[in-house]
Amino acid sequence: MEASKLSDNKIKKIGVFTSGGDSPGMNAAIRAVVRAAKHYDLEIIGFLNGYDGLVQNEYKVLNTRTVAHILQQGGTFLKSARSKAFRSAEGRQKAFENLKALKVDALIAIGGDGTLTGLRVFQQEFGIPGIGIPGTIDNDLYGTDSTLGFDTAVNTVVDCIDKIRDTANSHDRLFFIEVMGRDSGFIALNSAVASGAFAVMLPETDISLESLISLLHRNRIKGKQSSIVIVAEGNINGNASEIAKALEEKHPDYACRVTILGHLQRGGKPNYFDRLLAAKFGVKAVEALIEGNTNCMVGIQKNEMILVPIEKAIKVHPDIDRELLRISSILSE
Ligand code: F6P
Using an 8 Å Cβ cutoff, are 138 and 181 in contact? Predict the structure, then answer.
């Protein structure tokens, strides 16, 4: 960073926290934030349990020692929550008083859209500079090619699908595997292509039961005995259990099974990609604050670090990769 920007810096103490659903790489991001802050001689404290920690004044003083050996661990050692208290004006006022008393000049929030929304509201109400780090397995924030934890989560899902495929093949069964992603289909689409799934049902596309049935029939004629269908939890035509039930009602001859992968997708060690992303996001977030930025999310686009206004990051719904969708339909024919 340029020396002039550093000498203009007014920030002396940063508060960092993780909020919302955890994602692999959050610990690595906290570590990167702490080490970058120390590099620039800033003090840093970590609030516990997301925004609840700000409201309840629960925090830990952080230094390079307190974040030793956490880089490779899943989850978040600062804990995470979706805070009810922070949604009220009184809660946010309390949080502001606590930050003032602690002389915290700026915040770095690691989390998804709810976390960034909270940061934006707080910044607008009290003017405390804030930078967001996109930490969610859903990859549903606009302006970054990848959110922290998404890559690891997709790897976890692919590993699970491979295992399910073994048993699906042994028993000639049709499996519906439901994956997370809230109202986005990134995990579903990427894992479907990477595991060679027969079909993928997403919030962004509209595959009806009828068209799924005709695809299945066609495959049966071709001699395919077992199949995997990936269903995003936000699929517009129903979740995995609903689709499987509707299919069995019409065609009891299909031996259907449903697996809901659930929260195992959020756990586990961050992979190499997410560790690197955490390092880049953490340093960028601290430097962005020192350079006088606020109300932005750090992002990565074509391997370049950028800042995206939080408003844009949360309000624009990123679209799935349409080219990958086309590839998926060609490969599953
Ligand atoms: O946003 C991450 C996520 O795992 C979503 O994919 C999922 O819909 C949701 O969180 C589950 O939330 P909870 O942990 O509160 O059940």
Answer: yes
